[in-house]
């Protein structure tokens, strides 16, 4: 079959891989000059199935409100009454109770662990390199209260059979010796040895280049204007380079997916959640982290990507604004410096902002959308790098008329119909 993938972020590029592997003729349309240039460009790099979970959690609305009142808090939202945001926030609020949290968390865990297994397989099947590091992730706690929450998380991990270890401060420093230089308190940690990290932009670039040698066509610098459709069937897309037709069109456009689907009457509850990252060179290896460290106090994740570190965090519900605010860069650097004061070239750190394509409940939206010839692979939120390969494989299975290897209950658009 001829299949058009719209968007070459980590989700679209991975989708092109599985579709091509399944023998389809694949074309990818991307408005940027290369793959992985938007949200997939500067994320924290965490491949973290062990703690993949929704942003909608018990206690979050109060926490978000409290933080929004503080100046330069890591969480911020606009009070401007934008209808799109209000509708999304209302749905998000409904997902914040304990029962909904459990359902959503389990759905995301199902995708994330499957996805990690798919990524490992993809790595064995292709020659691509992307600063992959399988050293696990350390969730760091600075206070006793955070340690208590860590213990609750550990119980949940035990219930799900996910490898983990609760560490006292001494053991935490043994796992990540660079923390010995920290200026903040290390009260304890949770080690997730099965998690990993890698550069998703490098992944996209390398995979896209490899796919091009295998016959997949990437139309870069080509904007999708609208979908082509008639009589209940999507037949392709009108682009800045002219029409492209296909048997199946896959929507992997991150935050732009709702706008492209709206003329078809498809409402995708995806809203951008802005975050920031810095990337800095490592100057003294033993002073910089060797593994990914998730600082639960600031909610900033620091990953080692080869001879660089990437630190990312913050959450702003302010629309499509991608402006870079110096105060946010300062806050991020201050936070990371507290953890790793030396061995990193903070002076020349590059600064980036991206928009997580968030669903209100957390899981992505995969598969059918009520139109023949159309499949969704959207709404990957704050876990898109972790979930990309698994969701791509599910979508390729659906396109090929096969039953996906994981249950897609709760992962399709249907869940919002009720
Ligand atoms: C600060 C931050 C930290 C994060 N950390 C992590 C992490 O540690 N681990 C993790 O798993 N996830 C993380 N994420 C989330 C992850 O980055 C996203 O979920 C993921 O990148 C989404 O991928 P995507 O392909 O859906 O979207 P994108 O990467 O945005 O790709 C969509 C593509 O569609 C293209 N497009 C859109 N409109 C059009 C059009 N009209 N015509 C043509 N092309 C179009 C865009 O140019 C873009 O390339 C983080 C995100 C942020 C912002």
From TrEMBL:
Keywords: Oxidoreductase. The keyword Oxidoreductase applies. It comes from the Bacteria. GO terms for molecular function: oxidoreductase activity. It is an enzyme of class 1 (oxidoreductase). Residues 2-398 form the FAD dependent oxidoreductase domain. Its EC number is 1.4.99.-. The keyword Ubl conjugation does not apply. InterPro entries: FAD-dep_OxRdtase (IPR006076). This is D-amino acid dehydrogenase. It comes from Candidimonas humi. The lineage of its organism: Bacteria, Pseudomonadati, Pseudomonadota, Betaproteobacteria, Burkholderiales.
């Amino acid at each position: 079959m001829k299949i058009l993938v719209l968007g070459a972020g980590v989700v679209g590029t991975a989708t092109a891989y599985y579709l091509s592997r399944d023998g389809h003729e694949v074309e990818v349309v991307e408005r940027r000059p290369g793959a992985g240039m938007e949200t997939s460009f500067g994320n924290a790099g965490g491949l973290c199935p062990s703690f993949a979970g929704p942003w909608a959690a018990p206690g979050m609305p109060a926490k978000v409100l409290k933080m929004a009142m503080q100046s330069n808090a890591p969480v911020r939202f606009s009070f401007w009454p934008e209808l799109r945001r209000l509708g999304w926030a209302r749905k998000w609020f409904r997902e914040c109770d304990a029962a909904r949290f459990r359902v959503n968390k389990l759905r995301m865990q199902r995708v994330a662990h499957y996805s990690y297994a798919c990524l490992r397989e993809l790595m064995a099947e292709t020659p691509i390199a992307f600063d992959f590091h399988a050293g696990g992730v350390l969730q760091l706690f600075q206070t006793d209260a955070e340690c208590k929450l860590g213990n609750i998380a550990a119980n949940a991990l035990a219930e799900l059979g996910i490898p983990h270890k609760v560490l006292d401060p001494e053991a935490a420093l043994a796992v990540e010796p660079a923390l010995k230089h920290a200026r903040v308190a290390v009260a304890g940690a949770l080690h997730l040895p099965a998690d990993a990290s890698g550069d998703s932009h490098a992944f996209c670039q390398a995979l896209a280049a490899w796919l091009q040698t295998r016959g997949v066509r990437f139309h870069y610098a080509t904007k999708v204007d609208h979908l082509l459709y008639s009589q209940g069937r999507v037949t392709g897309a009108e682009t800045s380079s002219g029409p492209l037709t296909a048997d199946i069109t896959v929507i992997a456009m991150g935050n732009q997916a709702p706008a492209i689907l709206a003329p078809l009457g498809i409402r995708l509850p995806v809203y951008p959640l802005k975050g920031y990252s810095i990337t800095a060179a490592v100057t003294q290896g033993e002073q910089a982290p060797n593994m990914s460290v998730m600082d639960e106090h600031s909610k900033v994740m620091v990953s080692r990507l080869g001879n660089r570190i990437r630190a990312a965090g913050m959450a702003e519900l302010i629309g499509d604004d991608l402006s870079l605010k110096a105060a946010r860069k300062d806050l991020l650097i201050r936070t990371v410096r507290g953890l790793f004061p030396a061995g990193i070239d903070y002076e020349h750190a590059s600064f980036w902002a991206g928009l997580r394509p968030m669903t209100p409940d957390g899981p992505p939206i995969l598969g059918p959308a009520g139109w023949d010839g159309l499949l969704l692979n959207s709404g990957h939120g704050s876990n898109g790098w972790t979930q990309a390969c698994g969701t791509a494989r599910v979508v390729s299975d659906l396109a090929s008329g096969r039953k996906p290897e994981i249950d897609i209950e709760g992962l399709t658009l249907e869940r919002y119909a009720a």
